[in-house]
Amino acid sequence: MDNHNKISITNNCNNLKSYSPLLYNKNLAPIYNQNWSWYNIVSFWISNVHSISWYIVTSSFFNLGLKNWQILLCLIIGIIIVQLSVNLIAKPSQISGLSYAVISRQAFGVFGANIPVIIHGIIAFIWYGIQTYLAANALMIILLRLFPHLDSISQINWLGLSCLGWCCFSIMWFLQIIIFWQGVDIVKRFLDISGPAVYIIMILTATWMIYKIGFNKIQYNSISTNLSPRAQIWQMITVIALVVSYFSGQILNFGNFSCYVKNMKEVRYGNFLGLPINLLLFSIVISTMIYSTKLLFGRMIINPIEIFSMVGNDFVVAIGMFIVITATITVNIAGNLITSAFDFSTCAPRKISFRTGAMITAIGSVLLTPWNLFQSPTLIHFTLNLLTSFIGPLFGILIADFYLIKHNKVFIKDLFNAKPKGIYWYKNGFNPKAIIALIVSSGICLIIVCIPRLNLIMNFNWFIGVIFSIGTYYYLVKKN
What we know:
By secondary structure, this protein is mainly α.
């Protein structure tokens, strides 16, 4: 952080008492001790890439009729777009030491920011439930492998989940709350450990599989395609869009992590190593594993979790799955539980504490019954596209406001000023231009989702939302 920004933040430290209680509590205050380095960012992305949900998304690409090199190329292009996007959204939070929820006040107004905050909180809420269920399902696989007699209680019997399923979900639910309750520093330590540990397990698994079948027998282009060249290009573009859409939630809330980092140089370096470099290594390892399964097990297995369950003895399987589960719940806490805690706390700082905000999400994740949502691919696909209809526009408005309108400046004190004299007061605490831009751009994306004839471009909703929101917001501001 440069000297100018250091002075700005230090001066605001003396003005905490002047912050409005309607907008401030201790968890929303600027972070003065920004001590995260590039390694912490890399660990965060490693855990993200090695989460169970990303395994499932990535493995689905192998069913699209594309060759290995085409999938790899799409993953790299998509993740570079993600890298550029998180670098953009990271800066306002890094130079101010403020979370996404507070920074949103700059564009939407000190009270208007509750609109994007609630939208994002709901998105994090849904993802938290899904990730918790996926971790619980992986735990159930381990238990059934180690204790086969538990199969008798693994049949569906209540609200779409078996008795064993409820036990595993409850374990993951309480475990995540316990870790969260220890504070952000503990979550950071889990990220620092779980990320590299997953790579060790992945590399060891791939090495074992290569040893069993022989390196020369691996055929990376064993998938044949019957798609025409035009169809292949369209599928590749779709994969790129899906990669960006998957990470769109993390793109939007990345300020919740960059606000802890020492400077933007550390952020950019961490994102470079943690996104394109990390994903390239991930793709090589996961491709080796998937293509090895055909020779090793007689069929191609594209789900890494299933591969883990079939490799080695029970002890090795348990260790491997345990580390993957740890990475999943750690990134779930960091990316969804902490994020939603910030969001809900921002809406009513005096009544909703950081921990209370997290509990709202945790309890809601049970009421959501995410296993029912996930067991219906059509429903979850529709839901995620529906949520992406808001994520893209929110990102576009925040970027346009900070870079094109505010010219890289953040006035920290005014983000906690609930009086008309504040810079971010706009009109009664709301910025009508940002709200109109959100309604227009999100409305266009929702039309695409809801009209069947337009569903062909539904996977590009994030890009469409970003373009329309930037254009609409910039036009409304410059017009007046």
